[in-house]
Design brief:
This protein has 503 residues and is α/β, with parallel strands linked by helices. The protein folds into 2 domains: 365 residues, TIM Barrel (Alpha-Beta Barrel), CATH 3.20.20; 92 residues, Immunoglobulins (Immunoglobulin-like). 32% of the residues lie in helices and 20% in strands. An 8-stranded parallel sheet has the order 9-8-7-3-2-1-11-10. About 3% of the residues have low confidence.
Length: 503
């Protein structure tokens, strides 16, 4: 009887996994945050850095990840050569000390991401200067040129958000990154005004008296602070658009905008926790409504069933207020693996959360915190993504409000023998400008008489930047149809070209 029950359960699980795998979306954001302040990359030689990063990306690729949010500016410093800010201490161990061999870590990570069909989002912290004021700043740090721009709060140092000079400098840094590097997006997390410290007021009275009160915010310091952050967000969006119109700007705010009990209009969520609007002075909904951010990844890290901040409640709330901008769910992979499903206590919450992300209107994907935690495979979550929930590739969503014009289709599709084997080759389509250019190519494979369905992600065999694909030649007796499409920088897909080939 026990064996019969086991077999029945096993078959049910297998059928469920089969159903999931064969109903996966072709388009979905599947991101990971890779943070650098944890010291994961500190002190590594150039070769060690490259080897380690490649290993991480290869594993992510197998798990279906298509976007990497890499922390490149953790403390007003840089994981790239910059004339504006010093090298990061989280790279070499000492701020201002460059890596050997003229190595450019950000350029390397960008290239390796793009080789694998992944987006690269340059993750920057806008205001933070020192995680701990005891850490040593490089002599070239902007702090020594303009100490009046900075304040100490708790044990940390920050740019003063109330000073226009600080916004101007931060904009300059972002423009430098976007203009010099082939980034797909600029990304900011939840560190706007710092998280409040009980009994301590943020020291911006002088800035308020200089800019806030005379600027129409007399007696409204909270509104002035929110306006400071909103001005930065608006100006950054304008700067990015003017520099490269295909580069996105996204944020990952704290998971609660406002608690309903704290709002007169009742717009808040049924939660009881710290609030973006009130404590961090981040009016995220204003930014989304006005189109100042291109995507939103709120950090909805809590478990389903959390009494103060229920994950499902918050997913539904943010989806309701997405305002036609791409909305992705920020997932805490460790917490997801730690807590049991409320209805199935023998499994963790990953299945339910993945189902929720794919059935809730306006949700267009997930981003996992953190990449390093995911690699540790808590609760077999990485394995589950690779084998079930993301077992087929997915193209990122199209940002149609930025560009909805597909590139022209590829030309000259043919299969040829080379020294490296049997190769499928094509020609890059012609384009008038950068927005129309093919940036990637999607290669599909179908059985000889199978109906071509480009919406089936199980047929995708490669997403590549090259104009060729190595064919898996066997006996030369089995015929397949290969289809190639072109994708622009914002993932608009061209019409197909196809060719039948015996392998």
């Amino acid at each position: 009887m026990k064996i019969r029950t086991f077999l029945a359960t096993f078959l049910m699980v297998c059928c469920s996994l089969y159903t999931i795998a064969h109903n996966l979306p072709k388009r979905e954001f599947r991101g990971v945050w890779l943070h650098t302040i944890n010291g994961d990359y500190t002190g590594k030689s150039t070769n060690e850095f490259k080897t380690y990063l490649i290993s991480q990306l290869n594993t992510f690729q197998k798990a279906g990840i298509n976007a990497v949010l890499f922390q490149v500016r953790p403390e007003a410093d840089a994981f790239y050569p910059s004339k504006l800010e010093p090298w990061s201490r989280f790279l070499t161990g000492t701020q201002g000390v460059a890596p050997s061999d003229n190595f450019d870590p950000m350029a390397f990570v960008i290239d390796e991401c793009h080789k694998r069909g992944m987006e690269f989002h340059a993750w920057v912290n806008p205001y933070r200067v020192q995680l701990n004021i005891s850490s040593k700043l490089a002599p070239t740090h902007i702090y020594y040129q303009h100490p009046e721009w900075f304040v100490v709060y708790g044990n940390q140092r920050f740019f003063n958000p109330g000073l226009p000079q600080c916004r101007e400098f931060i904009n300059k840094v972002m423009k430098d990154i976007v203009s010099r590097y082939d980034v797909d997006a600029i990304h900011m997390d939840d560190y706007f005004y710092p998280y409040p410290i009980a009994g301590k007021e943020f020291p911006d009275d002088e800035a308020f008296q200089t800019y806030g009160a005379p600027g129409g915010f007399e007696g409204q310091k909270d509104n002035w602070r929110r306006n400071n952050v909103s001005c930065l967000i608006r100006e950054l969006h304008e700067t990015i658009r003017e520099t490269k119109p295909w580069v996105k700007f996204g944020v990952s705010p704290f998971g609660i905008y406002r608690n309903k009990k704290n709002t007169l209009d009742g717009i808040g969520s049924e939660t009881n926790g710290l609030q973006n609007y009130d404590e961090l002075y981040a009016d995220v909904l204003l930014w989304i409504r006005n189109g100042w951010v291109d995507y939103n990844i709120p950090q909805i890290y809590w478990e389903i069933g959390n009494k103060a901040a229920d994950h499902e409640t918050l997913v539904n709330w943010w989806a309701t207020y997405s305002y036609d901008r791409p909305f992705f769910i920020g997932q805490d992979i460790e917490r997801t693996a730690k807590f049991a499903d409320l209805n199935k206590p023998d499994i963790n919450q990953l299945p339910r959360k993945m189902q929720l992300s794919r059935t809730t209107p306006n949700v267009m994907g997930n981003c996992f915190w953190s990449g390093k935690a995911l690699l540790a495979n808590p609760g077999n979550s990485l394995t589950a993504l690779a084998n079930t929930y993301q077992c087929y590739p997915a193209l990122p969503p199209v940002f149609s409000f930025m560009d909805d014009k597909a590139p022209k289709n590829v030309g000259g599709l043919k299969a040829i023998w080379t020294e490296d084997g049997y190769i499928l080759m094509w020609k890059e389509p012609k384009a008038k400008d950068e927005m129309d250019k093919a940036f990637n190519y999607c290669v599909y494979r179908f059985e000889n008489k199978e109906k071509v369905n480009l919406n089936d992600p199980s047929k995708i065999v490669a997403v590549t930047r090259t104009c060729y694909y190595k064919l898996p030649y066997d006996t030369g007796k089995v015929k397949y149809r290969y289809v190639v499409t072109a994708l622009d920088r914002l993932h608009n897909e061209s019409k197909m070209k196809s060719k039948k080939i015996k392998l």
